[in-house]
From TrEMBL:
InterPro entries referenced in this protein's UniProt entry, alphabetically: DUF1631
Protein's recorded name: DUF1631 domain-containing protein
Keywords: Coiled coil
Origin superkingdom: Bacteria
C-alpha cells in the first residue's frame, strides 16, 4: 500500500495563479517603457538638484531647522529614491498591463476595522496636492494619452487598455513618486516643496516623453494615422438615492472615504472627510474669522437651527433676496427666529459645527455669485438657494464630497443653464421662468427631506431635454454641413495643388485653359471626393497629357507621337464631359477650340522641324486606338526630354486661381486684417485647446453674444459657433479666432461644475489663509 502525502505545496499553487494572471508585454511596449521611464529619470535628477538649492535657501543658512534637515535627508536618500521610483514604475507597468482581463484578485473574506483609520490632516493635504498635480498634468496631455492608450490596446492581446490601467497616466507617475518618497523622513511643508518641484520639473515635461512614445509607435507602424477626438462634456445625472456614494476618481477621492450620511435628524451624523478638512482649516483661521469672548451656557442644536432656517427661507426676508445677487448674513437675522440675542449668536450660541457650516456655505455662495460665467438673472435665482443648501449641508454631510448628490447636481445644472442662457433668445423668458419656478419650489417646500431634490432635478433635466431637442437637431445639421463643406474645400485645395504642378513651366493656350477651368478641375474634384487613388491618378495623368499635347515641339519623334495620341486624349476628355454632365453645345465648342489648338501646334512643329511653308497644313486623320489610354506616356516623354519648348517660345506666368478654384472655395481666404498683428503663442494655444461643446462669449457686430463651439474642423482649422438654439452665428479660422481672444473680443467661459469649482476655491483660500497666519 503506497504512502500518500498529506503535505500541501502552497508555493506551487501560488506559482500556478501567478502564471495564469501574468502575460508578457510585447517588445514594442517594453521599448516604449524604457524610453518613457528614462525621460522621467533624467528630469527627476534635475529636480533633486533644484530641490537641494531651494531647501537650502528656505533654511536661511540655519543648520537647525526643518528645511535644512529635509535638504540633508534628500541628499542621503537621493540614489535610493531614484531606484525606488524606477521599481515603482516597472511595477506599475506589470500590474496595469501584465494581467489578463479575466484574472481576479483573491477575494478578501473578512476585513478588520482595526486596520481602518481616518486620514489625518497631513495625509489629506498631501493627497490634495498630488490630486491637483495629476489633474493639471493630464489636462495638458489628453490627446497624447488617448493615442498611447489606443495604440497599447492594439498591441496587447487579451487585455483592454483604459484610462484606469494605462501606466503612462500622470496618476501612475505621481503614485510611484509618492511611494518612493515614503523613505524621506521630512516634515509636511518640505515634502510639499518637493512635490511642487516634481510638478514643475518632471510633470511639466511629460509632453516630451509622450511625444517620444507616440513617435516610436508611429515609426513601428502602429496606427500611424491615428486621430483621437476629445469627448464632449458629460452631463451629470442624478443618483438614485441621496446616500449613494460617488466612485473615487482621483487621489483626493481615494484619500477621502465617502460614507453615507443619515437623512434623519434623530440619527448621529457620520463625519465627512471634505467637511472635516474645511472645519480643520477654519479652526486654524478662526481668530481672523470670528472671535468668541465666551461660550454660552446654552447652545442651539442642529434640529432647532434647521427649523429656524425653514421659517426664514419662507419669510419676507428670504423673498427680499429675490431681486439681488447678495449673500445673506444669517447670524444677524437668526436671533429673532431662535429667541436668542445677536450677541449670543456671535459668541457661539449656534455651536461649532453649525457655525462652521454657515461659514462654509457663505464662502461657497460668495464664489458662486461672483462667478462671471453665469448671467446675473440666473444668479438671482441661485442666491435664493443659500439657505436651502445650508440646510442640505446640515442634514447630509456627504453633500460636500458626493459629486452626484441631487442638490449639488441641481445647482450645477442651473448654473450651466446660466452659462448658455441668452436674454435675447426666443426662449429666454421660458428658461428663466423655469429656473425661478424651481427656486420658488425649493424655498417653499424643502424642510429637511433631501429626496425632494431628486424630483426637482428630474423635472429640470426633462425640461432642458424638451426645449433643446430642436436645437440639438439644428446643431447636428450645422456640424454635418460644415464637415461636408470642409471635405469639399480640402478636395478643391488638392486639385489646385495638383494643377499648379501640372502647369508649372508650361505654356497653356486659352482653349486648354478654358477646358481645365470649366471641365477638368471639376472632374478632378469629384474623383478627389471619392477618395479612390486609382481614379485620381487616372484623371490627373489625363490632365497632364492634355497640357503636354499643346506644348511646342521641336523633334520629329515627339511630333509623330503627338499626332497618333491626340485622338486618345480627346476620347478621355469626352468621358470627362459625361462625368460632369456638360451640355453638348459647350462640349462641341470646346473640342473645336482644342482641335484648332492642336492643328496650330502640329503646324508650327512641322514648320520648325521640316522647314515647310505656312500654307502646308496637316489634316488630322482618325487613327485606330484601344479603349485604354497609355497613362505612362507622359512620364516617358518627360524623362526622354522629348517635350521641349521652341527657342522663340516664352512661358506666360499663370495664376493658379484663374484656372482652378478661388481661395474662398478652398477654405483658405486671405486674412489681410491679421497679417500685421503679432498673435502670441499663448493665444494660439488657448484657441487650440477649445473642444466641441465649449461655451464662449463672442463679440459679433459690436454685440456680445454667448455661443457654443459646435464643430472644430481640423482639416481646415475652422471653428463653427452656434447659439443656444443651434443656429450658426459665426465661423473663424485659428489665427482670426486667436486674434479675437487676444484683443478681448472672445472670452472662454468655464463650464465645469460650478459647485466643484467653488469648493476647490474655498479650500484653496482657507489653506492660503493658514499659510499666511
Amino acid at each position: 500500500m503506497g504512502n500518500k502525502s498529506h503535505i500541501l505545496d502552497f508555493n506551487s499553487n501560488a506559482k500556478s495563479v501567478q502564471g495564469k494572471k501574468a502575460i508578457s508585454l510585447p517588445v514594442m511596449v517594453e521599448d516604449a517603457r524604457k524610453i518613457f521611464i528614462g525621460e522621467l529619470e533624467s528630469n527627476l535628477k534635475q529636480m533633486f538638484e533644484e530641490a537641494d538649492d531651494m531647501l537650502f535657501d528656505m533654511s536661511d543658512g540655519g543648520y537647525q531647522n526643518a528645511h535644512f534637515d529635509a535638504m540633508r535627508m534628500l541628499r542621503l536618500k537621493k540614489d535610493g529614491l531614484l531606484k525606488s521610483f524606477y521599481k515603482e514604475m516597472l511595477n506599475s507597468f506589470t500590474e496595469s498591463l501584465g494581467k489578463r482581463d479575466d484574472y481576479q484578485e483573491p477575494s478578501i473574506e473578512s476585513l478588520s476595522f482595526e486596520n481602518i483609520a481616518l486620514v489625518g490632516d497631513s495625509e489629506l493635504e498631501e493627497g490634495i496636492a498630488i490630486d491637483g498635480m495629476v489633474k493639471k498634468a493630464r489636462s495638458g496631455n489628453v490627446d497624447a494619452l488617448d493615442k498611447i492608450r489606443t495604440r497599447l490596446d492594439t498591441l496587447i492581446p487579451n487585455k483592454s487598455v483604459t484610462r484606469e490601467n494605462n501606466p503612462f497616466e500622470p496618476v501612475c507617475i505621481c503614485t510611484a513618486f509618492k511611494n518612493a518618497s515614503l523613505a524621506l523622513d521630512i516634515d509636511l511643508n518640505s515634502l510639499l516643496v518637493v512635490y511642487k518641484l516634481f510638478e514643475r520639473t518632471v510633470l511639466s515635461q511629460l509632453e516630451i516623453g509622450y511625444q517620444k512614445v507616440n513617435e516610436l509607435f508611429v515609426a513601428k507602424g502602429v496606427l500611424p494615422d491615428l486621430k483621437v477626438s476629445t469627448p464632449q462634456r458629460q452631463k451629470q445625472k442624478p443618483m438614485s438615492s441621496p446616500n449613494t456614494a460617488l466612485p473615487s476618481e482621483g487621489l483626493l477621492e481615494t484619500a477621502i472615504s465617502e460614507t453615507s450620511a443619515s437623512t434623519s435628524l434623530n440619527q448621529a451624523p457620520v463625519d465627512d472627510q471634505v467637511l472635516s478638512l474645511m472645519q480643520s482649516l477654519l479652526a486654524n483661521n478662526r481668530p481672523s474669522i470670528q472671535m468668541h469672548n465666551s461660550v454660552p451656557t446654552t447652545q442651539v442644536d442642529t434640529p432647532q437651527l434647521i427649523n429656524a432656517l425653514t421659517n426664514l427661507q419662507a419669510s419676507q426676508f428670504a423673498q427680499s433676496a429675490e431681486g439681488g445677487n447678495t449673500i445673506v448674513d444669517l447670524r444677524n437675522v437668526l436671533g429673532s427666529q431662535l429667541n436668542t440675542s445677536p450677541e449670543a449668536i456671535q459668541e457661539g450660541a449656534l455651536g461649532q459645527f453649525n457655525d462652521d457650516m454657515i461659514d462654509i456655505v457663505s464662502m461657497l455662495f460668495d464664489f458662486i455669485l461672483d462667478d462671471k460665467n453665469v448671467h446675473a438673472e440666473i444668479k438671482s435665482a441661485i442666491a435664493r438657494l443659500q439657505i436651502p443648501m445650508l440646510k442640505v449641508g446640515l442634514v447630509d454631510r456627504t453633500f460636500f464630497s458626493n459629486k452626484k448628490h441631487p442638490a449639488r447636481v441641481l445647482l450645477n445644472e442651473i448654473a450651466y443653464t446660466g452659462i448658455s442662457w441668452d436674454p435675447k433668445a426666443t426662449d429666454s423668458k421660458l428658461v428663466l421662468s423655469k429656473i425661478e419656478e424651481i427656486s420658488e419650489r425649493i424655498t417653499s417646500e424643502f424642510k429637511d427631506d433631501i429626496s425632494i431634490f431628486n424630483g426637482i432635478l428630474d423635472d429640470l433635466l426633462n425640461f432642458k431635454q424638451t426645449t433643446q431637442r430642436r436645437a440639438q437637431i439644428l446643431e447636428r445639421r450645422t456640424k454635418e454641413a460644415e464637415e461636408g463643406k470642409a471635405k469639399a474645400e480640402s478636395a478643391r485645395a488638392r486639385v489646385n495643388q495638383e494643377l499648379a504642378r501640372m502647369c508649372k513651366g508650361k505654356s497653356i493656350p486659352d482653349s486648354v485653359r478654358q477646358l481645365l477651368k470649366n471641365v477638368w478641375v471639376h472632374v478632378m474634384f469629384l474623383e478627389s471626393l471619392k477618395n479612390n487613388p486609382d481614379s485620381w491618378d487616372k484623371v490627373t495623368k489625363i490632365g497632364k497629357l492634355l497640357i503636354w499635347s499643346v506644348q511646342p515641339v521641336k523633334e520629329a519623334t515627339t511630333l509623330e507621337k503627338l499626332i497618333s495620341r491626340v485622338p486618345r486624349i480627346v476620347k478621355n476628355i469626352r468621358k470627362g464631359f459625361d462625368i460632369i454632365s456638360l451640355s453638348p453645345i459647350d462640349a462641341t465648342r470646346m473640342l473645336d477650340q482644342l482641335e484648332e489648338t492642336h492643328r496650330e501646334v502640329i503646324k508650327q512643329a512641322q514648320e520648325y522641324i521640316e522647314g515647310k511653308n505656312q500654307e502646308e497644313i496637316i489634316r488630322l486623320a482618325p487613327t485606330p486606338f484601344s479603349d485604354s489610354i497609355e497613362l505612362n506616356l507622359l512620364q516617358q516623354e518627360e524623362q526622354s526630354g522629348a517635350v521641349d519648348l521652341a527657342p522663340s517660345q516664352e512661358v506666360e506666368s499663370i495664376e493658379i486661381h484663374d484656372i482652378g478654384f478661388t481661395p474662398e472655395q478652398t477654405g483658405k481666404p486671405q486674412l489681410e486684417d491679421t497679417l500685421d498683428v503679432d498673435i502670441s503663442q499663448a493665444s494660439i494655444q488657448a484657441i487650440e485647446s477649445l473642444t466641441a461643446g465649449q461655451w464662449v462669449e463672442l463679440e459679433i457686430d459690436s454685440n456680445s453674444q454667448r455661443c457654443k463651439l459646435a464643430a472644430k474642423i481640423s482639416s481646415s482649422g475652422k471653428f463653427i459657433f452656434v447659439n443656444r438654439n443651434g443656429v450658426k452665428l459665426a465661423e473663424f479660422y485659428t489665427d482670426a479666432l486667436a486674434l479675437e481672444y487676444q484683443t478681448g473680443r472672445l472670452k472662454i467661459l468655464d463650464d465645469e461644475a460650478l459647485f466643484d469649482r467653488a469648493l476647490e476655491s474655498v479650500i484653496s483660500n482657507l489653506r492660503a489663509m493658514k499659510a499666511d497666519a
